[in-house]
Amino acid sequence: MPVDAPRPSAWRLLLIFSRIGLTSFGGGLSGWLLREFVQDRNWLSEEEFLNGLALSQALPGVNVKNMAIWIGFKLAGPAGAIAGFMGIIVPPAFIIVLMAVAFSKLTDYPLTSIALAGAAAAAIGLSASMAITAARRVPRRAFPLLCLAATFLAVGIFHWPLLWVVLGAGALSVAVEYRRLSSGEGI
To answer: Which residues cross the membrane (predicted)?
Structure first.
């Protein structure tokens, strides 16, 4: 966080995460978080955000929930982590229950399918934006590209179990990166 930027309160984080959770859904939430905390508010650097995103994706559970907890903790400590979790989960969960009741009444109308298709397209666009931002920052080295290709082949072509491929490739990647960093290369 920039030195001169005021630290947000847990209450402010709760309101921000609630707004994000209530106004977006699907895979595009990471894009909203990037825009909100890095681009608009300058509370996190792009590198910090991408490191947090990588950690959130590596941990079990929902990526966006993990990211909200990480951002909240990074910006406002334990109270911020609780605010991030509560803001991204509770208000949307309440709305989902209400929408499920209403949606069961609207499934007969064609406009419902059109609206959902439009929302899906927006979520795909936000996910693509996030992927492009992350791809621009990834160093172009042979080993990460080799891991990418090997993972694609193992899961996409050979249909090996995702869990074992990710665990194996992840462990190998961490070991190689640890060795590279501890040798002083690329620090």
So the answer is: 12-34, 75-103, 109-133, 145-167
Rounded CA-CA distance 179/171 in Å is 12
Q: Is 48 helix (H, G, I), strand (E, B) or coil?
A: helix
- Nearest CA to 130 out of 45, 53, 43, 40 is that of 53
Helix residue ranges, H only, the chain: 10-23, 29-34, 46-58, 63-106, 110-137, 142-152, 162-182
Q: Which two tokens stand for residue 74?
A: 């990074």
Report d(CA 82, CA 107) in Å as an integer. Answer: 36
CB atoms near residue 154 (< 10 Å):
18
Report yes or no: 37 and 118 within 8 Å, Cβ to Cβ.
Answer: no
For residue 72, the 8-state DSSP code is: H
Distance separating alpha carbons of residues 103 and 89, to the nearest angstrom: 20
- Rounded Cα–Cα distance for residues 107 and 4 (Å): 51
184: left (phi over 0), alpha (psi -120 to 50) or beta: left
Give me the amino acid identity at 99: M
